[in-house]
Each structure stands twice: as structure tokens, then as C-alpha cells.
Design a protein that fits this description.
Layout (H helix, E strand, L loop, with lengths): L2 E7 L3 H13 L5 E5 L13 E3 H5 L10 E5 L1 E5 L5 E3 L6 E4 L1 H15 L2 E4 L1 E7 L6 E7 L2 E12 L7 H4 L11 E10 L7 E5 L9 E8 L2 E9 L8 H12 L4 E11 L8 E2 L2 E3 L15 H21 L4 H29 L4 H11 L9 H11 L4 H5 L4
Parallel strand pairs: 1-2, 1-11, 2-8, 5-13, 11-18
Antiparallel strand pairs: 3-7, 4-7, 5-6, 9-10, 10-11, 12-15, 12-16, 13-14, 14-15, 17-18
Helix pairs in contact: 1-3, 1-6, 6-7
The protein binds flavin-adenine dinucleotide.
């Protein structure tokens, strides 16, 4: 029965950074990172957009081979296709998640963490002792790992949280179903991301074009199933693409869920921390979760390392992780969530008129600040939709 100090379940951004940071904080600890898929970073279920500042806390994107595209513009689109091109919207990046996730896992490995692919946690129990016993299926055999701290970074379908007795349920109204194609041979500005808001196109969410290069982009949408007319996300997306890019070649397809909820009430218990999507640590307005996951992973890894060094992995000690997360971003997410609820009442006619009135501002003055001020006058709830998109 392998004995480890920290067992991280899931090698997405949250898990890889958790293993990396735990090992960096306390090199003497045995840290193991499990990934159930056969390769870290594949398949990709993501539009791959991140903000510059959050990303740079962990890695330098300049010239990195895990970047697909540098983004300098944000174009908002109304339901009637009226575009609002933001001036000075800042820099963001479209990642190559396959390479990026592998890069993060490699950082963990370089610090000395063991990275196991094709290794799935299938059950976990405490059995009265001070360690968690985690069943791990790998290459057709099962092994039980004994761990002082388990970090559940296992994404939207988290099981670690449930096994540990934490409440990770998501209300149906806060779960977005997403569908996305990689489209080739399409015409758009490759330096801009496009976000289109419309109840008819993506009820409860939005549609996006995130450039991977010239003429190639992640084109997708997220919607709330409860608000649809009965069609699923792919059917909505097919309708949108048929209108916008009828000649685009579909060379990739993915579906996935995004939890647009607030952080779970309790992300810790004796010997367990939950991080990233698994703990609903996603910006509920934008649905962006990559930078959030890395920040949560860092907190989880460092908290686990410190707690083990102190010889106290009790729920009481690990509560510091939840508090640190809530101070860092969790409280902000509560505010965004309330605003999201406010935005739900805006109809397509209002969005069309808002875009037209914002476009009366001179283009070079159409900075985010000016647009937001304008939007605030018309509809105060709109402000953070864009302002916090890249958190
Ligand atoms: C269509 C779509 C588009 C998106 N676009 C963006 C975007 O543009 N920008 C952005 O910031 N966010 C985006 N997101 C959200 C973003 O992908 C997530 O927030 C982010 O990946 C969360 O990282 P994570 O590490 O918490 O979870 P994940 O990246 O989901 O990683 C979890 C990992 O755990 C593994 N795993 C699960 N269970 C087990 C187990 N039992 N044992 C071992 N391994 C396990 C999984 O295989 C997976 O690799 C998008 C999401 C979707 C679905």
C-alpha cells in the first residue's frame, strides 16, 4: 500500500499547480498527481482564453510553445450582430491547453512530484485512521494509496468532494452546457475575441469566437438547459454557425459543462481540500476558470504542505485554505453571481439598443472605462461582465 503525503486527484490546472506548489513549499514530502486520462491536457474541453495578469503569476507566455495566440481586442456583439469594439481592452491569450496542461504537470514533476497518467481514483475512505485510503485503478489493476492529504482537483464531475462528504451539488440553473467546434477557413479578426450575447443564440450564456490562428478559431457557446426551447447546445451552435460561418470546416468538436455558481460552502474536511472547478471556483459571469483553478491549486498545495509539516491535517487547520480562497476571489464571485442573476432579465431588444447607444461614443474613446460608464448609466448590472472577464 503506497504511503504518500499529498495525493492530488486530477491533473488539470488546479491539480498540476497544487502538486507543483506543495512540492516546492515542502520538498521533503511525497506528492503524487493522478490523471485518469491517458495524457495530461487531452482531450481539450475548453475555449482556452486567459487573461495576461493571472497567467503570468504562474508562467511567462511570451514565446511559449503552449500559447496559440496573443489577443489584444475584445469585440462584444449584440443579438442583431451590432459590434462594439473595445479600445485598449488589454492583453489576453488563447492557450494550447494540451501543451499548457502538460507544461504545468511538468513543473510539478520537475519539483519532484510523481505524475501518473491513466490512473483513476475510484473510491476513497478514511477507515477511522488519520489517513485517507484511495483506490487507484491503473493499467487494469487496483492499488490503495494511503495519503495524509487528498486534494480533489477532479473537475466538474468531482467525486473526491462527494467521497469526503462535502456538498458539491450544482443547481440546474447554474450549470451551463457548452458545445464548441474548431472551425477552419473562417474570416474574422485573429487578434480579437468575440462574445455574442443573445437569448435566441445562447439562452442564459453567450457564444464565442476565440482565435487559434489566422482563419482558425474555437467557436462555441454555453447555455442553460432550463432556458432553451428544447434544443441542445450543439443544435444551437449549429444554427449559429450556419448563419455566421456556413463555409467553415469543422475540424474538432467538444462538449462540456461549466458551473456558473459560487464556491461550495465548504471546500475542506479532515485531510481533504477541493480546488478548481470541483469546488465551483469559476467566475460565474464569464465562465472562465483556468486562472482561478491555478490560484486555488496554489493555495491548496501550500496549505497542505504547511499543515503536514505542522503535523495537523485536521479540518480545523485546513479551514485556512477556504478562508484564503474566499478572501482572494470567492467573495468577488459571490458579487458576480448576484450580478449574473440581475443580467438574466435583459432581453435581446435591450441589448441591441445598448450596443447602438455605446457605439455613439467615438471609437478611440470606446475604452472599457468609457463603455462601462455608458453601460452603467443604461444598465448598472452590465459593468463586470467585461471588466472581470479575464480574471
Ligand atoms: C467548452 C468550455 C469552454 C471553456 N472555456 C474557457 C476559457 O476560455 N477560459 C477559461 O478560463 N476557462 C474556460 N473553461 C473552463 C475551464 O476549462 C475550467 O475552469 C478549468 O479547466 C478548470 O481546471 P480544473 O483543474 O479545476 O479542472 P479540469 O481542467 O477539468 O481538470 C480536471 C482533471 O481531473 C481529471 N480527473 C477527473 N476525475 C478523476 C479521477 N477520479 N481520477 C484521476 N483524474 C481525474 C480529469 O481527467 C481532468 O484532467 C471552459 C470550459 C468549457 C467546458
Amino acid at each position: 500500500m503506497p504511503d504518500v503525503d499529498v495525493l492530488v486527484v486530477g491533473a488539470g490546472p488546479a491539480g498540476a499547480v497544487a502538486a507543483w506548489q506543495a512540492k516546492q513549499a515542502a520538498p521533503e514530502l511525497d506528492v503524487v498527481l493522478l490523471e485518469r486520462d491517458r495524457a495530461v491536457g487531452a482531450p481539450v474541453r475548453c475555449a482556452e482564453g486567459v487573461g495576461d495578469a493571472g497567467l503570468r503569476e504562474f508562467a511567462n507566455p511570451d514565446g511559449a510553445d503552449w500559447v496559440s495566440r496573443r489577443i489584444t481586442d475584445v469585440i462584444l456583439e449584440a443579438p442583431d450582430d451590432t459590434q462594439v469594439v473595445l479600445a485598449n481592452s488589454g492583453v489576453g491569450w488563447i492557450l494550447d491547453r494540451t501543451r499548457f496542461d502538460a507544461f504545468l504537470a511538468a513543473q510539478a514533476a520537475a519539483e519532484g512530484a510523481a505524475v501518473l497518467v491513466g490512473a483513476e481514483a475510484t473510491a476513497m475512505a478514511r477507515n477511522g485512521g488519520d489517513r485517507w485510503h484511495v483506490r487507484v485503478k491503473q493499467r487494469g489493476t487496483e492499488e490503495v494509496y494511503r495519503a495524509r492529504v487528498v486534494i480533489g482537483a477532479d473537475g466538474v464531475e468531482t467525486m473526491v468532494g462527494r467521497w469526503a462528504g462535502l456538498d458539491t451539488r450544482v443547481p440546474a440553473r447554474d450549470m451551463e452546457s457548452c458545445a464548441q467546434y474548431v472551425l477552419q477557413g473562417i474570416d474574422f479578426n485573429p487578434d480579437a475575441i468575440y462574445l455574442q450575447f443573445s437569448t435566441a443564440i445562447a439562452p442564459g450564456g453567450y457564444a464565442w469566437i476565440f482565435p487559434k490562428g489566422v482563419g482558425v478559431a474555437n467557436v462555441g457557446l454555453g447555455l442553460v438547459a432550463l432556458k432553451t426551447d428544447g434544443r441542445n447546445a450543439r443544435e444551437y451552435l449549429d444554427a449559429w454557425i450556419a448563419r455566421r460561418f456556413p463555409a467553415g470546416a469543422r475540424t474538432g468538436y467538444t462538449v462540456g459543462g461549466v458551473i456558473v455558481h459560487t464556491t461550495i460552502k465548504k471546500s475542506y474536511t479532515d485531510g481533504v481540500l477541493i480546488a478548481g472547478d470541483a469546488a465551483h471556483m469559476i467566475n460565474p459571469l464569464s465562465g472562465g476558470g483556468i486562472n482561478n483553478a491555478m490560484k486555488a491549486g496554489r493555495l491548496a498545495g501550500c496549505t497542505a504542505a504547511a499543515a503536514i509539516r505542522e503535523g495537523d491535517t485536521s479540518e480545523r487547520r485546513l479551514a485556512a485554505y477556504h478562508k484564503a480562497w474566499m478572501d482572494l476571489l470567492g467573495e468577488d464571485h459571490l458579487k458576480y453571481y448576484r450580478l449574473k442573476q440581475g443580467l438574466e432579465h435583459m432581453d435581446d431588444a435591450f441589448l441591441n439598443s445598448l450596443a447602438r447607444s455605446v457605439n455613439k461614443v467615438a471609437p478611440h474613446k470606446r475604452t472599457l472605462g468609457r463603455v462601462l460608464t455608458h453601460a452603467m448609466i443604461r444598465h448598472p448590472q452590465l459593468i463586470p461582465v467585461v471588466a472581470r472577464f479575464f480574471v
